[in-house]
């Protein structure tokens, strides 16, 4: 799947906003720690991906009822669903000058029921023209998402027979329906009911 930026204005994919708050101290502290890998953008992007994937449990896997949505909040609480973790990774990338945005998939149960929007990240290393999708959701048995800029290694490959969809657009900010659900839900159970079934 070839990610396509929503806008040709690359500055939008480096900007801070209410959710991607990469100017906050918590984000900057994490960036400083991850920057120990050196100045290479690819090495830093890989380190940021692994940090979010492996040290911030997906709240559905851990059973954590809390809902996080700001990058700084995700990093502080060390919990979040795929959308929150993706926001955190985008903030960590942008803070180091690596253009990044949010991507989405429509996924469903094995019988095609209960569709839900899943969040991922697309990034473009400096000097590259191509965007690459990565999935910081977090691995578990049956899920093996990896940092790969060539052959995509995301958590799930869409299944057209179940009306699953890879949305190609790379958004500079979280889509409004997802952000509204994250900001409004009192806990993860309520969040599951509020997340959109598609874009």
TrEMBL record:
| Stretches assigned to the Transglutaminase-like domain | 36-136
* Pfam families according to UniProt: Transglut_core (PF01841)
InterPro entries recorded: Papain-like_cys_pep_sf, Transglutaminase-like
According to UniProt, the name of this protein is Transglutaminase family protein
Could you tell me which species this protein originates from?
Streptomyces durocortorensis
